[in-house]
Amino acid sequence: MKASDLMVQCLEAEGVEYVFGVPGEENADFMISLAASERIRFILTRHEQGAAFMAEAYGRLTGHPAACLGTLGPGATNLITGVADANMDRAPLIVLTGQGATSRLHKESHQIMDVVEMFSPVTKWATTVYRADTLPEIMRKAVRLARMEKPGATLVELPEDVAKEDTGAAPLAPRRFRRAVIDDKIADRAFELLARARRPVILAGNGAIRRRASKQLRRLCEATGIGVLNTFMAKGAVDMDADYCLYTVGLGSKDLPTLAIDESDLVITLGFDMAEYHPHLWNPNRDKCIVHADFLPAEIDEHYHPDVELVGDLAHTLWMLNERIAARGLPAYDLAYQADLRLQMQAEFAEHAEDDTRGTIRPQKMLWDIRRLLRPEDIVLSDVGAHKMWIARHYHCHEPNTCLIPNGFCSMGSALPGAIGAHLVFPQRRILGIAGDGGFLMNVQEMETARRLDADITMLVWEDHEYGLIAWKQENEFGRHTDLAFANPDWLRLATAFGWQGHRVDASRDFASVMERALAERGPSLVVAPVDYRENRRLTERLGDMFEPGLIGS
């Protein structure tokens, strides 16, 4: 058989379900081989970046990699933003690129560039296939590294002449093993710190939303009452209705939840990446006692110098702590202040629940209505922009992986293709993507992909006719902002042109009913709402008055 046939067989053996992408001449053999597969579905996208974002959403929701595909040269460069986003947001993903024949890689030639070198900084591993017989080892390694904690992206480049080679090799059967776990002595040290603390708090990062980890975290909190702050990427690690849920941290300025860290004498970080909420923002004096529990050792940083490191499978680490708590007990903690903070945040969430405004709608009102409309298992995907900050602060979850917010690489344009990927994983759930007008138009062409797939997704666009987050940050720092304004299309005609249902809502009192109708519609629906981003400045001023000046951002 051909090498391209073997590559497809290797992907099948690994359980890969989807390949998203835009083919080219140099991966024609692979595409013909893929078309013969009965186990892998190819999704043709309208841009390679959209393909990468779809694969990223699939990976974040399932823990298993999908593949995104592009040809050499511009196909590969179009993939790289979405791949970098997946890699920094810890989503398992396989990148498959074509390449020119090996006979011309050493010299100037049409569309030839060093794709492997270009992808090396944004993947866990990148390589070229030079011999067909090496494909079983290469594909096994690519998938294993993509899945291994912390998950991320890997790239395999297949030159067109190698793709045609005959081979008698066969796929390697995947063998998956339990992750390494911490030993008893280090678990005892962490327990001793818990026993001595009076005001502990938990900071849950993206690693805490693995289902096994979330289950053990909830067990720990039920036993101890310790409050949990989640990063943007850890929403749903604990149920928003639990008394110990202290909501989200990650804004670049002080906010009510961060007071829980200020008041604490022990911070337990779980699956936490520094990119999510830099420690200089919550440990400025470098005086916090920190227990770091994660799959990997802590990053070296002067503001993040753990007293104990629990490096191993996070769910097992939490189980070991839970077993010690059950056997030995813990003192009664002084956590009344955490309950106080929770009540203050709840009051802010509900402040605009009964808004009756026309012309623009406050972010808080839209998110209040959306939370009431969506079921616990439904999924919200945020694009990047000012709306992301409001979603992080005001939209909370019952279950892990029901709100996906990019917060490592933070690329705009992810919500629409991500929503398509989410629909393919969970076709029975309501899938809602939220984007600003700037971010939505960056991958607007994927509206056709959604229509072709008859995807049951709803996209909500917050319209403000400018790059609102940049305006917000510039105003905070300089008191004014540069020219960031732009025009938009006629949204309802755009929806019609792509075969979508379209809605525009200008009154806050009508927002919930319009959203409910759109979410119930079969196929893709677009809802556009003019957003009142005067609230950005008001939030900055309120937080500044309560605490200290600082930029809103992440």
Automatic annotation (TrEMBL):
Residues 383-528 form the Thiamine pyrophosphate enzyme TPP-binding domain. Pfam families: TPP_enzyme_C, TPP_enzyme_M, TPP_enzyme_N. Keywords: Thiamine pyrophosphate, Transferase. It comes from the Bacteria. Its EC number is 2.2.1.6. Residues 1-118 form the Thiamine pyrophosphate enzyme N-terminal TPP-binding domain. Residues 188-321 form the Thiamine pyrophosphate enzyme central domain. One of its GO terms (molecular function) is acetolactate synthase activity. SUPFAM superfamilies: DHS-like NAD/FAD-binding domain, Thiamin diphosphate-binding fold (THDP-binding). Gene3D superfamilies: 3.40.50.970, TPP-binding domain (3.40.50.1220). Belongs to the TPP enzyme family. This is Acetolactate synthase large subunit. It comes from Spectribacter hydrogenoxidans. The lineage of its organism: Bacteria, Pseudomonadati, Pseudomonadota, Gammaproteobacteria, Salinisphaerales.
